[in-house]
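Good morning C.,

I know you're traveling, so I'll keep this short. The sequence:
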Amino acid sequence: MPPGSLKNSYTVPCSSAFRQEVEALAARRKVNVGDLARSVLLVLPEATIAAFPDPGEPPSNDRETVILKSGPAQGRPWRRKPRLQVRMPPGYAMPLIRRALSLALAMDKGEMTVFVGDARPAVAVPPPPGDDSLFLAAAEEEVERLRAVVGVLAFQPLPDGIKTRTEALHVLGFPPGSDPDLRAIKAKFRMLATIHHPDSPYGNHARMSQLNQAMDFLPGGRGS
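The tokens, ready to paste straight into the viewer:
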């Protein structure tokens, strides 16, 4: 990757079953695999993710056959480890990416719940054994509290849409007079999109639409 690149392509070895589960979750959520990993890395401290079990590399009998497309052996079959191709910023270790994806699967299955707010650190915890009605009630109460907090702190969509760069930066949460670079703008968009996407428990279609409008308005925004 050239200096200043925002994304790196990771080839993450994993079992075939793990890859299938991750790709199925990404398809259901209408995101890519990198989005799943980044969402977990955004919400949870790295130390919490690092403490989660690593699904690990595939066993020796778990291999896939591909046909080589270039080089002296072009056209020949090759047995290799199953892997996930993950587009993320550079600098992450592959075991951390696998752990983040494993946490995403656990949360999707209801095996882990993330609490974020107050003075408590963000933490993923398993539900208690036996009757989990109290646990579910507390989780629902926490979601409602966070939804209210997001509603109070979030921007109000501009009724006439975005017409200037200043308005676009305001929607993305930059203070008046700031002049962020493209890296900062995209990072802010990813963070806010995680919160305001309609699939989020705190999502809001109008806010998400205006976030997209802000990125479309700014040169080099979405799709760059």
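Safe travels,
E.
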